[in-house]
Structure prediction request, 225 residues.
Amino acid sequence: MNIFRLAGDMTHLFSVLVLLLKIHTIKSCAGISLKTQELYALVFTTRYLDIFTDFISLYNTVMKLIFLGSSFSIVWYIRRHKIVRRSYDKDQDTFRHYFLVIPCLVLAVFINHKFTFKEVMWTFSLYLEAVAILPQLVLLQRTRNIDNLTGQYVFLLGAYRALYILNWIYRHFTEPHYVHWITWIAGVVQTLLYADFFYYYFQSWKNNEKLQLPA
Amino acid sequence: TTTEPGKDEL
Prediction:
């Protein structure tokens, strides 16, 4: 494991912890898209189908369990927790899941490495992860006033993707058989979706102002 | 290792 991969995993982990902590301590999910959180739960479920069949490392298994557990907990909080769910703004979070899920599923069925259930599901999870942030970005754009923790959450998620790309570049040069163009394309698309957000995030940070996205 | 590319990542 290289430093970029480890840093990427850690920012990913922090992003989830920041979100869980925000929801748990202030009992509010204001500004958080349930649609995005449900898509992530689906991403992790379909990607980690191998969790009990292929052992890679203890680190790998533990991280998978954390991502599965945290994503389902977040969905549970927003849907079921009697205080948290009151802060969920359903009318603003209107992105339709199937606009993303169905095209990704079709793409995964046709464009994959191997036509087996596990492989198609794994590929589907890559495609879906690439676009799963969209409902959240749309919500940020709509609400405009973004609290610090939500801003940090999205920033950490974007940083995780950027670090994974550095990891792939590193692996490409150090591991001769490391070629995986589906991962590459999905990963680059995913990172590009954050470009706009990053721009405004750094602007607000530089000027020491509250983060606001243009209408 | 015999792990396929990408499968050892999260």
In short: DSSP finds no helices and no strands in chain B. Chain B has a mean pLDDT of 76.
